Amino acid sequence: MQPTQKYNEIISAINIDLTYAEVSKETKVGAPTELNYPAMIISFFIRYVKRIPTIKDLVKRLNEDITFKLNCGFRVSDIIPSESSYSRLVTQLSVSNVLDEVKEKLILQAIQEGFIIDDTAAIDATHFEARDQAPTKK
To answer: Over 90: is that where the pLDDT of 65 sits?
Structure first.
């Protein structure tokens, strides 16, 4: 698949229904009001797919690679958001319940399609220390 097709498939599966009120600004202080918020969200997800480690690296890649910028949904005339703009967006998304709704929809869709066959799904995010090698057996 071409990157554009792959990104479209990923985003269509996520299907975030954002209203402008959830990410709009109430004051003139902070991030510019003319940011392309849907493209920011797409690029944020694609960051994980492309294994881009930090937001700083994502912003750098968006500034340097016009094809990547267009594949993420930005227009040529759009300004690239700063790291702080991404940080504000993540804060606004975490305060709203949009991501929880998307997670519920994805889980229900996975159950309907047979990827999850039990009526109970558990997600464990416990931190554990990784080991380079298995311990020696006695």
So the answer is: yes
Domains in the chain: boundaries: 3-17+33-112
> Does this model's pTM top 0.85?
no
User: Residue 91, Cβ neighbours under 10 Å: how many?
Assistant: 10
Structure tokens at 135: 């311990």
State residue 54's pLDDT score: 92
Mean pLDDT, the chain, integer = 77
